[in-house]
Protein 1
Amino acid sequence: MESVGMLSRILARSAAPRGVIVRSFRTSAPAVSAVTEGPERDVKNFPRPVRPIYPGKVRMGFIPEEWFELFYKKTGVTGPYMFGVSFLTYLCSKEIYIMEHEYYNGLSLALLCIIGVKKLGPSISAWLDKGIDQYENSWEEGRKNQLQTLQDSIEAEKKEQWRAEGQTLLFEAKKENIALQIEAAYRERLMQTYSEVKKRLDYQVETQNIETRISQKHMTQWIVNNVLKSITPQQEKDSLKKCISDLKALSAVA
């Protein structure tokens, strides 16, 4: 019986997907709070089925306990045993089940199996359970490593998102710097335009001033030349004498 339970446990755990830890569960329905169900599921009348790890109870090594409980309501406690004895007697008396040499070989083989299970079953079960626990520990370690890797990936992703937000602020600062550079270039070009326009206006003003001075000088020279041309030699001599006499008068007064 112990070997049957041990083999059932091994098969149940080997059937589970790799990376999933198989734990011992009761054969009854699981708690509703442990499973997230939709509002339309009737978990009370139709609970979620659970695959048991250990087999159900048996009697005499191979007869399920449920078969005996089925007879209890009709025949009482001794009913299943009486039915078994009667049915076996019927098979043997009608020679439906013939007790030939293979029957006795089967009895001896069954006896050897029972002795082997009773003597070697606990040690083999403990050894196999130890191996299963090692598998569970390795799977649990792998699961923890995978969870840690995923957690590290999540933290790295959050850090990258934080860096991306910093890049957004950096982009805004770069935009402001570019706007300032554009404004400085605009003002510089505006000043260059002002300087060039001023130079051209100053040139025009200076040109007009030069033309005015040239015109004045030409006009003065023309007037002087015409006045000199209009003075006769006699007038020049009289003017010279007048100047000399005026100088003498000034010198006498001094």
Protein 2
Amino acid sequence: MPEDPSSRRDLLAEQATDYALEHGLIGLSLRPLAAELGTSDRMLLYHFADKDDLVATILRVSNDRSVAALEALPTAADLADGVRRLWQALRQGRLEQCQRLYVEAAALGLFGQEPYASVVKEANDRWMAALARHLEAAGCRREASTRTANLVESVMVGLLLDQPLSEADVQARVVEDLAAALSAAG
């Protein structure tokens, strides 16, 4: 029985995402990627229209994983706890890798480079909706959840970008300050 091309494409997309999470997107080359996946660059191009289609797929799979990880966080006791849990999750494991890949793609998209610009916009919309739901579950008022999610996301991405340059205790204090400010704002 022949293999279903869509299931092979899905498997390759998952494996290529794992590769990109480990190696990044800048300088991604089809031949080394294909060799790592046990296939050829021609077979990758059979399953993906071109390298841009593959990169867009990697970004979507990574974002799906990020949203799933966010949605899997336990319900926080309150908004401050929700912010702390988010920061903790963003600094470890798969979610940390996905966020680094997002930041890399966002930087490339900032200059209008495709497929990064359009896929990052799409990914950001889904992530922000999930983040707003996470904050609502932690007690954020629904009418404020989108603005609060934007604030929290801006601080978190800024901290992640500064992570190699900042001390962990400084970042922890910033997260605590954010959590306290959001709790006080109600």
Protein 3
Amino acid sequence: MLLGPLADLLCRSALFVPGADLRKLERAAQAAADALIFDLEDAVAPTHKDLARRQVCEALAGASAGLRLVRVNGLDTAWGADDVEAVAQAGADGIVLPKCEQAAQLKAVVELLGSAPVKLIALIETPAGVLDLSALGDGGGRLLGLAFGHADFCRAAGLAQLRSDIGLAYHARCQVVLAARARGLAALDCVCLDVRDEEAFRADAVLGRDLGYDGKLCIHPAQVAIANSIYTPAPEAVVRARSVVDAWAQAQRDGLGVIAVDGEMVDAPVAAVQARVLERARRAGLVG
């Protein structure tokens, strides 16, 4: 699958799948996530890295719907370079680069990829990565999106709690989505570690959506449907968007720069926001 900008694709949910767990690899597609992230890094013990790489490559060779991404090990490890070359050859749509902090890291991955049509997502997980977002570069035109990893960020920052809704971690969460928006990249929100607490996940996903993220990283299949629902425009939002977009189109034909729709002011920025709602609904199959 040759990808355009990730922001132009539907990626409401991105489910991590441990590469060393064959049962989870085989069942991953059943979760109906918009993207699968086959994980070769944190979810795999050092003694199982080679096995995980082989199993992920086999999974990539099989047909599956949605985006097929792989979180490789960092290139500063003994497995990173082999990961990149292997999953690119196996047909991964994109590589998620962990603990991304510098443009040089993206450049090194691009050099390993050669001509393989594989895109990149930078996983921002450290204070240095957040501070250097403006200097990250575009990975030779391959960078599609930014994702925030709050657990590693909290650890690296010496924080006492693994929470992304307070303090420094919340600030970093905002900075990542802001950087993505400033550069026209997609933004994937951090995981929620409360895998057994549906309401906690729902609240965290709503917060991420309202911050401006395009979708959410998931660590359990049960989180996928919730993320898909929250990141899909509600029916009433679609009706409102259609009303505004249609009224704005007529206003443009009439030479008007500002109108009112149901008592609310609508100008070009407001109409553009509602047009984006309609486009997202179209990608979700809600409108033709």
Protein 4
Amino acid sequence: MTSVVTAPPPVFARRYRAMSVGMVALILLLAFEYLAVATAMPVVGRELNGYHLYGLAFSGGLAATVIATVVGGRWSDARGPRAPLWTGIAGFIAGLAVAGAAPTMEVFLAGRFLQGLGGGLFNVALYVLVAQVYPAEMHPRVFSLLAAAWVLPSVVGPAIAGFVAQNLSWRWVFLAVPVLAAPAAFVLWRGLPGGEPQVREAMGRAFLPRLAWGAMAAAGAALLQYGSGTTGTGLPLVIAGLAVLAFALPRLLPSGTLRAARGLPTVVALRGLAAGAFFAAEVFVPLTLTRVRGLDPAQAGVALTGGALAWSLGSWIQGRGRFGRVPVLRAGTTMIAAGITITALTVFHQVPVLVAFGGWVLAGLGMGMVYPTLSVLVLELSAPGEEGRNSASLGIGESVFSIVAVAITGALFAGFDGRTPVYLLCFALLVVMAGTGTLIAGRFEHARRAGTMEV
């Protein structure tokens, strides 16, 4: 008898169309807001007389995201993803409204904190929803689509935000998004299948210690991020933040993550290493091109745009499912390391500046291959009822590894006054991070008991 392999339905097939469109629209808005805040913040700080609280606009929102990720994971596993999904969307919209209408910097910070809570809940619940609604064979294409949804905001988001902040008002950078988020949420609601899954269990007292560890990790991350951008008292804050994270983080991640134990711990470690290396290098690319090579910000931004477009291409390639997971992960992390290395060479004036653009495109292509592949694997390696917790661990690992990489390289750069050897040292540390990912890429595979599916 000849077996017939049926291809999975398209992501925008009639059955899944409304949900896919709603998810993509909300991710587009989430990505735009994430990228627009940095552009609008100088104007916000000036008009609200809040430069002394400037760093908290970023670290406070980040701390809220870490806490919400912990809560959202447990909430989604215990009660299903819908309640945290809608709570997260509502919190995100409410936070934007508070920030956009803020009369003082303190109120603006409260809005950013609420926005971070909403975004954290929404992201984790979305992973669990994908696991419940789409069949497993569709997951690579679904996550490829969600990764690609970041591309358009990466290309046009900062420019739009800058134009609005300068020519209209910075408040519309925040207030316009809720107007667009409401119809996107309605489309997503229309696409949800009928019937709420039964409650599996109560949240439980055991959840409270995990929440406490999450709050501690959030505080450590905020200290680290804030200290890396502060002169004078910055070093003690960085050290304190690292100490708090070293104590709290192992309690929030799968056992063995920090030593890349086989299976799920390696998936979480890989996401952290790849994202940390890429996002920290992304800080230095425009810095190198403007301060060392004399480009203006718009010209330097073309490199970041190229990386974003390459990320989309890499996501599309892995979504075709024609290559094994281990080769994709090894190739992707190798591309990130190689791309950062090539980009770093442009600190030497003898190297053509176009080399940086090519290097960053290569790094973006690698991230596009790695990022959605790990999103798929975290669901495949999760037992029923653990998707939320494990997706939360993936998000926490990504956030914290990225914060540590950005903070350490930023502190080195500031401490040694941005000399050329310091650029090279910072880039080298990030190449080591990505290269470590290449070395451990195959460790997500592990032996299964007889009769169970192999990964």
